[in-house]
Write a structure and sequence with these properties.
about 35% helix, four-stranded mixed β-sheet, alpha+beta, single chain, three-stranded antiparallel β-sheet, about 240 residues, elongated
Length: about 240
């Protein structure tokens, strides 16, 4: 079932054309032009919201999920599994941006500890250089080459894993990726930025108004999140259910 709060490309194009008064049979802006602007501003809103370090764009994948398509690429999730007696260079999903958690899900090994370090950390480099496979108890890891999770030491037991990470929203197109991967109501900011860009290119002063609308949407979303995280009344009532 479709999420009614998620906007499709068709819906966004309709809203944007209405605001631009460009809904005639001979529009000034082509769908392709507006879609390029939408994708550009989608990335801009995504980056702006990520500055708050909140988990707005979370994805969870398991090494047992099989083969999936991500950003139009085929990805085999078993690439995240730990192989016994082998160098542990795990290939991360194509839309991976930032690690949130990584854990073993093999029965009996859920307690195994994974600690993230930088690639230059001496402890990490030491366990990576250790030439023998050991019983899986604790690992050091680092992100290398953007989409590789390198771990050490080697393990003598194969482990399946679960990865939680910040993902990169896919670009919209009219064929396969038709729905904006963005929490409600951030689509309004994407639309307003796009309208602003179009107005600016048309030398229309209304571009500044739309720019302020877009910024206001982002500020309100972030403000609500901060209130819900810190308001003692909200937190108390929420905790009552756990």
């Amino acid at each position: 079932m479709a999420n009614a709060q998620r906007r499709t490309l068709t819906q966004m194009l309709t809203s944007i054309r209405y605001a631009l008064d460009d809904s005639s049979a001979n529009p000034r802006w082509t769908d392709a032009n507006l879609t390029d602007l939408i994708n550009h501003n989608k990335d801009g809103v995504w980056n702006e919201v990520r500055k708050e370090r909140k988990d707005y764009f979370l994805s969870t994948r398991k090494s047992t999920d099989g083969t999936v398509t991500i950003l139009s690429q085929s990805y085999t999730t078993s690439s995240m599994a730990l192989t016994a007696s082998a160098t542990l260079d795990l290939t991360l999903p194509p839309d991976f941006i930032e690690l949130r958690s990584f854990r073993a899900i093999t029965s009996g090994y859920e307690w195994v500890k994974f600690t993230m370090r930088t690639a230059s950390d001496l402890d990490y480099r030491a366990v990576r250089a250790y030439p023998y496979a050991t019983s899986p108890v604790a690992f050091y890891g680092a992100i290398e080459n953007e989409l590789t999770l390198a771990l050490g030491p080697m393990t003598d037991t194969a482990l399946d894993t679960e990865l939680v990470y910040i993902f990169q929203p896919v670009d919209l197109d009219s064929v396969t990726n038709t729905t904006l991967q963005m929490p409600y109501p951030l689509y309004k900011a994407v639309e307003a930025f796009t309208i602003s860009d179009a107005f600016v290119m048309d030398d229309d002063p209304r571009g500044a108004v739309q720019l302020n609308i877009a910024r206001s949407v982002i500020a309100n979303v972030i403000g609500v999140d901060v209130r819900q995280s810190s308001d003692p009344i909200f937190v108390e009532s929420a905790d009552a259910y756990f």
